[in-house]
Amino acid sequence: MKPVPVVFEGCFGWLHPASGRRGVVLCSPHGYEELCAHRAWGGLAAGLAAAGLPTLRFDYHGLGDSAGEDTDPARVRAWLDSIHAAVRRLREDTGVDEVALAGLRLGGLLAAAAAAEIGGITALALVSPFVSGRMAVRETRAFARMMPQPEGVEVLPHRADDLNVAGFALTAATRNDLERIDLRTLEAAPAPRILLLDRPEARATQELAERLRALGAEVAEEAMPDGSDLVRKVQAGDGARRSFARLTGWLADGAEPGGSVSLTERPAGLMMPHAVERPVFFGEDEELFGIYCAPVVADPLHDRPAVIFLNSGATHHIGSGRAWVLQARRLAANGYASLRIDVAGLGDSPARPGRPDNILYRRDTQPDVRAAIDWLEEQGHGRCVVVGLCAGAAQALHGVLNDGRGPWRNGGRVAGVALINPGRFRLGAGDHVDAVQQSGIHRSTGGYLRELGKPDKLLSVLRNHRRGVRLAKRLAGRLAQRALQTVGLGGSVPRWFQRLSAEGRRVLLVYSIGDVTLREFELQLGRDGEKLRGLPNVTLSYLPGADHSVTEWAAQDRLGGLLDELLAAVDADAGAKRAPEVLRSA
Fold first, then answer.
1. Where is 246: in which H helix or E strand?
2. Which of 288, 312, 417, 309 is nearest to 360 (CA)?
3. How many Å apart are CA 342 and CA 371, to the nearest integer?
4. Which residue intervals of 379-464 are DSSP H helices?
5. Which residues pair with 227 in a beta bridge?
6. Backbone angles phi, psi at 168, to 5 degrees
7. pLDDT tens, position by position, 398-429
8. Which residues pair with 196 in a beta bridge?
9. Three-class SS string for 44-61?
10. Residues with Cβ < 8 Å from 446, sequence gap 6 or more?
């Protein structure tokens, strides 16, 4: 059976139905690590359901698609309460007799702490867990320091004590509360059966195993050497499948089979002070997934444009650093509805038959963007603005170019587009996210040549035939592009912007200062965008103190201001269009 979106006590989740009498609640890692593991974690949930275990995966309060923010007070208590609520919801919806918890990284720490509070948990599986909150804070702080820092980052005074981990926050209060938890000081076993999956050399996990055995638990230990990739590389979960297969077998061991599956029908809307959100399925077979965020007081005339947020690279629909969630709810407070979506093969949308997951810059996902526009039109939104970052920016650009209804003034639907740090402007067969990250697609032609000038790099290319062929093709393509532009040919990208300008559509092009994607920008549109100069409706803006994914908080605020200006301009255009019609009717 297909997973079912659920909402409970301010939390959003997915229930994966099955007929067994033992259910599983999956406790995800925190923030950036959850962003990386999201699709693999969903695959684990599907595998558990296929093994007969009803499974609920969810976002903690203040994270993911759930209500609240990670800067709210008492976060650790809220996260533990989210696990309590998930256990209750799983029992209520499926009627299971037994519940097991499985947690990854910080989710392992929280799962064990919650199991000790709940009591009666049948089994507990901890995957690459933090054994203590102090360890979690120390490692998270170290990871934050390793993240590349752009120049000129502005420190917001009210967030000076917050730890920024790729856009996700650990406040001082949250860090203090976490540091009070240490599983090695438990006074009773949180479950009778416990599995520890971790690196063989993880000394703290070995100490935890000894403590749990001393408390009378049956403890199994298995090696998981690839756990770090799962939470450090966005959507790089292929290597975890073997470990997840062992985890599934352990959780299913001894579980009682059940009868037919019967789920309680409940609304899945999430009500907040200024916004109401609901999960939606759209597309030809209603397989694609998105979250529709609307103002609490809806626009009765549907006069304001709705906003579509596209995947940032391979990140699911919440956006890098949860930016799309926060922007959507901020816009709802200002009266704008939005739809944040996953195209096929990313996030919570299934891949198309025969196509792998996590493929970027794919031409064949353009129907997914059109399907999102169609869905909004069916809800009464006649106009929209499409927003994309990185690979999502290329999808956004072609989404407006391929809007089949013509210029919006003549009945078209896409009135504007925001392109943030686009890595490419063109779409093709697509590349896997790992290949995009490793290919150096943003590197200048000179950068390629300098690399080949290094003896070790040249030797590596000569030894690896496939790598050499890929590099040669990229270099040849760059040189050919340069040659065509020199003689005035090959300028399709500037013509795209000229066309959008002539059609009266608003275009916002945003770059982080010093971003690697500026190489592609200059290659296609000239130094400082000289080929855009003089084009009405096209705005080029630069973000100081911003990284590629715009995860610095001050830069996020500035980006929000730019989006507000874009929407205001689109509103003004609509007002100018209506004025002659009003005069004629008078």
1. helix 241-252
2. 312
3. 11
4. 391-401, 433-439, 445-452, 455-463
5. none
6. -95, 145
7. 999 998 654 444 447 999 999 999 999 999 98
8. 126, 221
9. HHHHHHHCCCCEEEECCC
10. none
